User: Fold this.
Amino acid sequence: MDALQISERFSVAQAIVREAGDLAMGYFRNRETLAVESKGPQDVVSEADRAVEAMILDRIAARFPADSVLGEETGGPQSWDGATPLWVVDPIDGTACFVNGIPVWCISIALVAGSEIEIGVVFDPNAGELFAARRGHGALLNGVPMRPSTAASFAEGIVGVGYSPRRPAAAVVQAIAQLLAEGGMYQCNGSGALMLAYVAAGRLIGYYEAHINSWDCLAALAMIREVDGWTNDFLAGDGLTRGNAVAAAAPGLAEAMRRLSGLT
Ligand code: IPD
Ligand code: CA
Ligand code: CA
Assistant:
């Protein structure tokens, strides 16, 4: 993909994520009538997730019919050649918050080409915040460049921690115990995509989760890299299709977060 093709997709991604936010907000405001199904322990899906993903996929197909899409609710292409642009979509990240009326959720869209995350956009319609990054062109929050925290120790801020039953509790319990022992503090707000975007924006000083899927994290990882923060090599192996452990940190905490997470 050349720069023009990426730039066009960056603009379209921002428009789509805003439209998706409006659609999701309609469901959120009327959630007492929302149909919700369980996919497993602590894992629900609502008609809002499916409708928002369908709308996003429609918009992408209309503008870029040859591109591929990997969506949380609809899955990915049969095969992906690596060269075709791949959109990675989470229609609602923070569904548990969404269905319980907690205004902490977002829409997350990334664009991958080859082994690079070229674009990442995360929109939080409750806060009216659009986080957006394009590889090599910086990361913006509502049009203003983001800056990561200048913290140099865990004692100087809050680390986001995510958990899902996809992994045993031991890894996260151990990481939290270690963090607290070093004078740190943790927060879990229910949206991995938002917490990772907060690392780029300097609100959190790091993030750790023992397993997360690509649609939850790729968009925000693109932002963290643009602000010179540290992230592990999430796409190593089959991270794109099967997920991976994820860790991220403000620049001054890269070494500390490597040690805490055991990731590289
Ligand atoms: C989940 C959220 C959560 C994270 C999980 C994700 P969903 O996504 O990002 O914060 O801990 O790993 O599965 O189900 O709300 O889209
Ligand atoms: Ca998600
Ligand atoms: Ca989701």
In short: Helices lie at 3-29, 47-63, 95-99, 170-181, 192-200, 214-226, 239-242, 254-261. The radius of gyration is 17 Å.
